Amino acid sequence: MLKRIFSRAFLLAVLVSAGSAAYAQSGEYLSFTPYSIFGVGDLAQQGSAYNRSMGGVGVASRNVRYLNSLNPAAVTARDSLSFLLDFSVVNNNTIYRQGSGSSAKNITNLGSMAVSFPIWRSLSFMMGISPYSSCGYVYSAKETDPAVIAANGNITYYDYGQGGLYRLYGGVGYAFTKSLSVGAEADYIFGNNGKYFTETFSQSGVNTVKDSYTMNLHAFTGKFGVQYEYKLGGKSKLGFGATYSLATNLNGFVDYSHQSVGSVESVTVTSWSDTLSNNPGRVRLAGELALGVSLNLEERLRLELDYARSDWSKTGMDKVEGFACPNSALPFSAGVRSSWRAGAEFTPDRYNVRYYTRRISYRAGAFYNNEYYKVGGSEINSFGITLGATLPVFRWYNGLSVALELGQRGTTDSALVRERYARISVGLNLHDIWFQKRRYE
Q1: Of 260, 155, 263, nearest to 202 (Cα)?
Q2: Mean pLDDT of the 56-83 span
Q3: Rg of the Cα trace of the chain?
Q4: Distances (CA, A) of 418 to 103, 128, 186, 325
Q5: Which of 59, 150, 379, 388 is least surrounded, with the fewest CB atoms within 10 Å of its CB?
């Protein structure tokens, strides 16, 4: 018995280690968006393909068939001896438009990896890794001011960024009663972002100018969650959920370099390194409050609604070099991030043994986000719809989840960039029974 438990615990450590290595090698970019030039980059939508297929909801979701990592209190929604593993891959297909110009990008990366198992009676554990934010963009433009061209010749501007932060987490949930559960989670956020700006001059004898910010960042934070379910009669339930993620200082360092490179002697004009831990409170990650409500009708229809809010206006993202990006043509300011998410799930008859299609869970959702930054004084919003399903595989609760997200972010007004995208998530949720005492006759 102990040997079997040890071997499975060792397998969990291998899975998480493999997931960390896979993230480090998963591609050139975690995602690609011009708005990731600001702050810590583009914040990732947390959760699995199960959550994404319902608009990203999950704060109040309690479902024994899926691992819901959005609320640590949800880990107690399980069969008492069950082990759960969730793994997902995300493909982004985006079309960008600014003025009369357009371009496109296709990127596939790992989405999330998480495992969960019971510890003792009403106490359960989960751990996993997922993207926290991404920095991926490329800008190219030519100088159009006649006065500048007359004085310096033709100038080409080329800017690009690459990198990302990851979230490694572990949490526990405890069920006080069949209706009330609480949870707590510890998060370690880590990664690297690089932002590079180049000016190339057509005049001979004039060097190329290069500015670069290389950031090695890390932070410790946590999340608390609670869920409560009220029985309505039969198997119908009304659920409520809430989470609060703690604000925290962002530590690490920012290396800056300003270079003159070319036919004239190459020199480093300016170079400095700022250790963020020497200036506590200068740069922070914002806390977040999320609220959710769910309605589960006879295990056939599930409706959910989430709201989340986080205030980034005092995090220092728009004041510290490397995060504020002074080289950007449009000013950036940090603000309040908020989101509304709604989702529905319908399962015709999950116990039907005759018709496979009646055991499939069908989902749909919608969302509206207000990003944590303003560009040129304009708020950046995103909205979209989601569709998805989980196909039962083998026995127990094993399934293959597929989610399609169609959305738009930004606008073409005020020289901004509009993104229209189709995001496909494929997740594998595995279920097993552990800690069984075998009987032999």
Answers
A1: 155
A2: 90
A3: 24
A4: 11, 33, 36, 20
A5: 150
Q: Which amino acid is at 173?
A: G
pLDDT digits (tens, 9 = 90+) for 310-363: 999 989 888 888 888 765 666 888 999 999 999 999 999 888 888 889 999 999
Residue 318 half-sphere exposure, CB side, CA atoms within 13 Å? 16
Please choose, from the candidates 366, 346, 368, 365, the residue with its C-alpha nearest in 3D space to the C-alpha of residue 357: 346
What are the φ and ψ backbone dihedral angles of 11, each rounded to 5 degrees?
A: -60, -40
Report d(CA 159, CA 138) in Å as an integer.
6
Residues forming a β-bridge with 227: 181, 241
Distance between CA atoms of residues 149 and 355, nearest Å: 71
Summarize pLDDT for 263-298 with one digit per residue, the tens. Answer: 666 565 565 566 665 554 478 999 999 999 999 998
Sign of the torsion formed by the C-alpha atoms of 232, 368, 110 and 114 = negative
| Residues 24-49 as b or e (16 or more Cβ within 10 Å = b) | eebeebbbbbbbbbbbbbbbbbbbbb
Q: How far is CA 104 from the centre of its chain?
A: 21
In tens, the pLDDT along 14-63 reads: 344 444 444 444 445 677 888 888 889 999 999 999 999 999 999 999 98
Direct distance between the N- and C-terminal alpha carbons of the chain, in angstroms, rounded to an integer = 18
Looking only at the bridges linking them, the beta strands covering 42-43 and 208-233 are unpaired
Name the residue with tokens 């309690």. Answer: 62
Distances in whole angstroms, Cα of residue 364 to Cα of each of 30, 59, 81, 326: 25, 17, 31, 41
Q: Which residues contact 244 (CB under 8 A, 6 or more apart)?
A: 223, 224, 225, 287, 288, 289, 290
- Chain-centre distance for alpha carbon 245: 14
Task: Give the number of other CB atoms < 10 A from CB of residue 325.
Answer: 21
DSSP string, 316-383: STTTSTTTS-TTSSS-EEE-EEEEEEEEEEE-S-TT-SS-GGGGPEEEEEEEEEEEEEEETTEEEEEE
User: In whole angstroms, what is the distance from residue 354 CA to residue 218 CA?
Assistant: 52
Q: What is the model's pLDDT at position 241?
A: 97
Q: What is the pLDDT of residues 137-188, one digit of tens each?
A: 888 888 777 887 777 778 888 888 999 999 999 999 999 998 999 999 999 9
3-state DSSP call for residue 227? strand
DSSP label of 438: -
- Is the distance from CB of 64 to CB of 83 less than 8 angstroms? no
**Domains of the chain: which residue ranges?**
2-84+115-345
For the stretch 132-149, pLDDT in tens is 999 998 888 887 778 877
